[in-house]
Amino acid sequence: MSTQPLIETRAITKQYPGVLALNAVDFDLHLGEVHVLFGENGAGKSTLISMLAGANTPSQGSVVLDGQEMKFDSVADAQDKGIYTVFQEFSLIPTLTVAQNIFLGWEPMKGPFIDHRTMRKRAHEMLLELGFDIDPNETTSHLSRAQQQMVEITKAFHGDLKVLILDEPTASLTDKEVDHLFEFVNELKAKGVGIIYISHRIQEFSRIANRVTVLRDGGKIGTVDMADTDEDALVEMMTGRAIDEIYPKIEQGSGEVLLTVEGLRTAGIYDASFEVRAGEVLGVAGLVGSGKSRLFRTVMGLTTRVQGTVKMRGKDISHAPTRDIIKEGIYYLSPDRKEEGLDLVKTSKDNLAINLVMGDKVGGDGQLVKWFEVNSEVETISDHVELHEGYRNKPVSQLSGGNQQKVLFGKCFGQNADIIIFDEPTVGVDMGTRAALYLLIKELAESGNAVIVISSDLPEVMNLSHRMIVLAHGHISAELSGDNMTEEQVLKFFFDETGAKQ
Amino acid sequence: MMTEAKKTGAFDPIRKTFIKVGVLPFFLVGALIIFTALSDKFLSLQNLVNVARQSVYLVLVSMGQMLVLISGGFDLSVGTSIALTSVVSALGMVWLAGIFPDAIWLAIALGAFMGFAAAISVGLVNGVGVAYFDVSPFIMTLGVSSVGAGLALFLTGGVPVSGLPFAFGDTFGFGRLFGVPVPVIIAAICIIVMWLFMSRTRLGTQVYAVGGNIKAAHLSAINTKRTLMMAYVICALIASLTGLLLTARVESGEANLGSTIALESIAACVIAGVSLRGGIGRVENVVLGAFFIVLVQNGMNLAQVSSYMQMVLLGALLILAVIFDQMRYRMILSGN
Containing domain of residue B53, as a range? Predict the structure, then answer.
């Protein structure tokens, strides 16, 4: 590529107090190119795009647009210059209509009043031109997440769009919607727009990417042509280690059947039946919206059951409240540690103590809490999950995602559980901590517990599990084990409708 | 770590105290300085003993209020519980004393239990509404306080219930045991029980957990609905006990007792560092917070601030405390 880059950063650096978020990164984007930014959480991707989008200013280094050094004052300033970012958190106002959202901030005026008719007409034209089938008069909150994203993208086409930054655009899209998005991205490419694309979904890259830049710990590891690389190589670049160093080999025990679910039915789940055995890791995979999380939340009594039975060691717990199910020996770790996993203002000690106070592991049955015993057990657990001493007396809100997840993992050691359900156990957790968490999963399984891993991260489920169930549209579309557990097979059942109709 | 090093300055100990216990120490020192300057009687032993005796009622109600606040709600109906207890127990005692003129203590005990029962039903209604029907605590307790106040007025026709057994007022209103006023002894016992409950029992720990994050508590095998329910019932019960003590003090059943105590008790708690978002709060600080409110009222009386102006200042104090509570919460979350 001999042409001058559309936009580039030169030795861009961002220093926060105590943290070097970005360390002298060179990055360039050409006309009509899709350039993927790839890296773990905290690698510096968001920091990099926030500076390109005008939301943040670099401590050192420069941003160069069309050969000219730029300083963006604000996001609006960057948008004026043709750089538009679609963040993960949409900037749409849910109570306004699509047209109002698209024109928010620069509504067409007729005298002192907003010209609603022109606005609707132009919104309609813009949506049509981009090939989005959305009614501009619809209230935004009524749209699906994918449609909202389309509206968000449409907003970008106000001015002269040069650079479109997409931050995890496919995280909540169905497969069909992803196809549509990619078609659209390819059209933009043909029009000469440069696209910076951030995603964790490595399997998407070969479909759209021209080049990939890998970041790790704020530094640039390298930029490669997508044609010259493959997924394993990229993961190795991202993590600094090979895949088999991350996932431990877990010995499979041949235990008794602990949990039996038969014909479980609820809103969004149809006739789910499966068994869970002691000593095994059961993987649960499926797309967003497939019901993989909902299935186990129903087992835990967190959503209402409509039909079917759940038995723990032969005892019917279909209608037991969650607390009794936990006491029967099933523990569920929420995927959303901030919303429903941890008490953020409390220290990690307090968070761990709750399970010890409620469980029967220490302190006997009495109503009085034996804090001495509880506290010493909290220390043991904290050591066990390798939570650094300095973090134990800090409010959980101040810990990094990885350390918060360690505290959450610690909670399951406070409860005497036989089955531990990990729902998205490594969301927002860096690779180093992941490896540590996987070792805890290994230890739990090998000491005779049953472990269930629900995850959207396919390599994670596949590498940890002895057996997998795959969900599609609320049905269990496949149960795979041994040699059948290939990525190809799993993906086939992600979209498989035949399995659902059996 | 670098940020911490940077901020170590003269204000660091102040910041740490603020994060740890909240605004109370600063308010307390401020009040002592201001009122000592305004009146030379303020800082006398006799006055302080007097304040301690007067603060018994607010201390009790504030502990109940604290429990509800820690559980993540609040109770605007504590005043109603007091009024209802006063009216019901007084009516009960007068009526029963007429039936059993020879067993005056039986009449007092049964009358008191009738008062407790009335307050418990207030707590139950609050608890059921908040825990099982997800009504916001604000609306629930506001509604209930109207219902209760209306009932208390209806029962008495707005006229104080007089003719209470003398033994009741003599013992619980003005009585002394080993030279210590009976209300003070009762409050002391309650403080110890509450402290044990909050810091040593499973149920107390559960209240903190539910207030901190109710979903996380639910996933940690806690019966969250029962815990919420219990908080409102205990709060009403403590208010009821306060109502009895006040009834004994004024020697009549009155429907307008405790009309300002909801605001005062919330102010006492918030000043004492109980978070309005739930999950945080300590019994010993709340006792001090209630003491502080009464101390300020006493100081304003000595400085001859009019009672109308006192309302203004008290409300302002509450708002100020809430603003500081917000700042503190943000500091805890961000670690600054």
Answer: 44-329
Please check the confidence at residue B336 and state whether its pLDDT lies above 60: no
A-chain residues near B219 (CB < 8 A) = 302, 322, 326, 332, 334, 340-341
**Taking phi first (over 0 means left), then psi (-120 to 50 degrees means alpha), and beta for anything else, what does residue A274 get?**
beta
Residue in A334, A357, A369 nearest the CB of B219: A334
Kindly list the structural domains of chain A, giving each domain's residue range(s) and its CATH number in brackets, ordered by start.
7-245 (3.40.50.300), 250-329+454-502 (3.40.50.300)
Report whether pLDDT(A320) > 50: yes
Question: Which of B200, B279, B334 is the closest to A369 by Cβ?
Answer: B200
* Token pair 């030795």: residue: A11
DSSP B176: E
Going by C-beta distance under 8 Å and a sequence separation of 6 or more, which residues neighbour residue A95? A139, A140, A141
DSSP A88-106: SS----TTSBHHHHHTTTS
User: What number is the average pLDDT over the span B50-54?
Assistant: 89
User: Which residue of A299, A331, A350, A358 is the best one to mutate when testing the B interface, meaning the one whose CB has the most B CBs within 10 A?
Assistant: A358
Q: Report the C-alpha gap between A64 and A336 in whole angstroms.
A: 39
* Mean pLDDT across A55-60: 86
In a domain, B38, yes or no: no
| Strand bridging mode A83-86 / A163-167 | parallel
The structural domain count of chain B equals 1
Q: What is the CATH number of the domain that holds B184?
A: 1.10.3470
C-alpha torsion A30→A31→A32→A36, nearest 10: 30
Q: What is the DSSP string of A401-442?
A: HHHHHHHHHHHHHHTT-SEEEEESTTTT--HHHHHHHHHHHH
- 10 Å CB burial of residue A319 (0-12, 13-18, 19+) is exposed
- How many CA atoms lie within 13 Å of B256's alpha carbon, on the beta-carbon side? 4
The answer to whether A238 touches A39, Cβ cutoff 8 Å, is yes
Helix locations, chain B, DSSP H: 2-7, 12-21, 24-38, 45-54, 56-70, 78-99, 104-127, 137-156, 166-168, 182-200, 202-212, 214-218, 224-250, 261-271, 283-302, 307-334
CA distance A404 to chain B (A): 13
Average pLDDT of the residues in A122-128? 88
State the first-to-last Cα distance of chain B, in angstroms, to the nearest integer.
11
Return d(Cα A41, Cα A288) in angstroms, integer.
20
Q: Write the Ramachandran bin of B85: left for phi over 0, alpha for psi from -120 to 50, otherwise beta.
A: alpha
Q: Let me know if residue B5 belongs to a domain.
A: no
Around Cβ A104, how many Cβ atoms within 10 Å? 13
For the residues A418-444, what does the mean pLDDT come to?
87
Q: Residue type for A479, please?
A: E
Q: Which helix (H) or strand (E) segment is A286 a member of?
A: strand A281-286
Q: Using an 8 Å Cβ cutoff, are A83 and A52 in contact?
A: yes
Contacts of B15 (CB under 8 A, 6+ apart): B7, B331
For residue A40 the two structure tokens come to 């773990």
pTM of the full structure: 0.79
CA distances B113 to B104, B116, B241, Å, are 14, 5, 10
Q: Pseudo-torsion of CA A148, A152, A153, A155, nearest 10°?
A: 140
Looking at chain A, which residue has its C-alpha nearest residue B335?
A: A398
> Which two three-digit tokens encode residue A310?
């759940």
In a domain, B234, yes or no: yes
What is the residue type of B82?
I
B1 belongs to a structural domain: no
Of A368, A397, A415, the CB nearest to B200: A368
